[in-house]
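quick one, 656 residues, struct below
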Amino acid sequence: MAITSLRGKGNNHLLSRLKLLLNQQQRLAHTFSEGPHSRPKMVPEEGLIDMSKWRKEDSRLFGITRSMIPESSWNVLRILRREGFEAYLVGGCVRDLILKRIPKDFDVITTANLKQIKRQFHRAQIVGQRFPICMVHIKGSVIEVSSFETVAKAKRSDKEVTFSQMPKGCDKKDFIRWRNSMHRDFTINSLFFDPLSNKIFDYANGMADLGSLELRSLGSAKLSFKEDCARILRGLRIAARLSLSISKETETAIHKFSSSISTLATSRIMMEMNYMLSYGAAEPSLCLLWKFNLLRVLLPIHAAYLDEQRIRKFPQNSTMLMKLFFNLDKVVTVDRPSDCSLWVALLAFHMALVSHPQDALVVFTFASILYHGGCKKGLKFARDNAQVIVDYLPEISSSSACKSEEELEKEVSLLASLVLDSVAALTATESLFETMSKYPESPCSGLVFVPKKTAQGVAEIFRVLADDIKSYNRERKNYEIDYPVLRKGFLHATRFVLGKIILETMSSSILKGEEFVQEDYRHLEQESIKENCNKGKKRGLKPDTPELKQEFAKKHKLVEKKCRPLEQEMDIDNQDVVTLSQNVEKETCRLPEEKVIKKKHKATKQQLKTVEKNNDKENDSPSSLLSGEKIQKRKEVPDKGEKSSQLRLSSLFKYT
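---
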């Protein structure tokens, strides 16, 4: 019996060994049958981890200081470190800090798991199913905290590299960071930053791509976009905001998978579009969407409009649609965004003009009433100032200065009703197809992604003008943009900014080349958010730089040289000069005088604290169209005087 028992155990052991060998053989055969291209490049073969490309940089070499990190993010990092966990800033905030941009948010990643993260904070909740994260509410801010463990679990099906495959001499912390970075979307988003040690960790050549200002997928772009096609929209948004070129492989993959965008959930599309259009890079984002044929999927009516403008050989950046969003970019930024209702309202307004071209005076009055917050004051301003020809086709049919107040009120109300009808084409498939019937040669997927709730809010912006324009009277006490209120989508703030954008758009086609009054905010140094379609525009300098002072001195001398012979020739006394300037001001279209308040803009806890002190002074231009009004303008690439500092910065990206 004992012998029989032993034999039974021996047979079982032999069978288990045979099964194990058979399973190993099947896995090996399956691996060879997959071929070399079936595995993502981001997951290397065993023993082929190239540590020679790993880099650690001192963040101080790039001008990054601890004061640039919000207090809320600092608290999250400190608390996690105090409990013995590794914690880093990761992704876009590291990228933006290196490029001296204002990050939209500061994301944290840690070695703690999600339950451990939640236990460390009083107000924290775990959200998400596929890639769950912990939303930490601290100091009035919300910080997204992810876990290295979560990413590792989510990617196990992709043949995740295990610790047993870690190369000899590799630090475990480096291995954990490297393994996580291999699952990022783009190389420039794969950077880790430890502000406590002032170290930036790069495992995917992200610094090199930042140095060359190039957007490149991490690993195979085709596999990356196939896994998550929303990365296409995210990539174009980053390229638009940072003026990046796109690598050939990534560009090819975007073209190939552009149609897959329609398979995304409409809520995801709306979120990505809002990031594109509400944070100061709307115009270049639309340019890139149109370039890669994504606008035909997302906004087919506006894509058809741009296609027609191209056939008519109108420059893309001179179309009214692009001018509207260019002026939107002048008033919103990454740290001062608007609610989505603003750009949805602009799209609906433009659709109404294309379908039913309007008189320039009617459009000007329409915008003026929105801007001033009242019918009476808006009408008066429009009749006093809109006496010029506006060159926008097909949106503007004519320019008439001879209209009574009753006629203007009636036509403005009609225009508001047309805009209300256009809102439906952004939310209802039937209305979209009906509008697209005017463009029989243009494709239409039937995709609508604007939520009905958002559409209802947008409709309320225009309903007051459509229903009873005479009773609309919410005149403004001041003409400064209340950004916290604008971000929340309050109607009176949205109407005001919408009117401001339309007025500036109408005025820019009249007074080409005029300078607007600029307002400099205490933010990080901003470069221009321009794409290839906007090349050739002159860029500004920081107001406290010696280069700008020298430039102003040169301009002043040039003006003096031009003025002296004129004064000698005309021999006009001071009183006549004053009278002449007053007459000119009456003929020039001006918005109402506003109180110019000089104050230092204190950075909120969610904003970066800049190192340099900027003088918040306005450069009032007598030729400015909008006299006395402060208009926020994005900072742009420095002039020749700052090229040397740029070269020094770019040299830091090079490998030693």
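The first helix runs from residue 2 to 34.
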